[in-house]
Design a protein that fits this description.
Oligomer: single chain
Structural class: mainly alpha
Distance between the termini: 41 Å
Largest sheet: none
Number of strands: 0
Strand content: under 5%
Number of helices: 2
Order of helices and strands: HH
Radius of gyration: 23 Å
Shape: elongated
Length: 79
């Protein structure tokens, strides 16, 4: 493997880029987490308040496309 070193690049430049990447990743993951929580809350609020569903709607296969979809969902939940 041939390593290429670019003239004028210092270790501090590489470290700054690494720290920027780390900070950006943390900001993005935080934003994604907030969207995910809001999305889950919206689904749960809508389903739990529906008289045909109730708070344990996810346990009933009738709320899924088919048995396979329900089985996969429950496997993901339990894993």
């Amino acid at each position: 493997m041939i390593k290429t070193f670019y003239p004028g690049v210092r270790f501090d430049d590489i470290l700054a880029l690494y720290e920027f990447d780390r900070s950006l990743r943390l900001v993005l993951l935080d934003a994604i987490e907030q969207v995910e929580v809001a999305f889950r809350s919206a689904i749960v609020n809508a389903m739990a308040n529906d008289k045909d569903c109730g708070p344990h709607f996810y346990l009933k296969t009738k709320h899924f496309k088919d048995m396979e979809a329900h089985r996969n969902f429950m496997k993901n939940v339990l894993d």
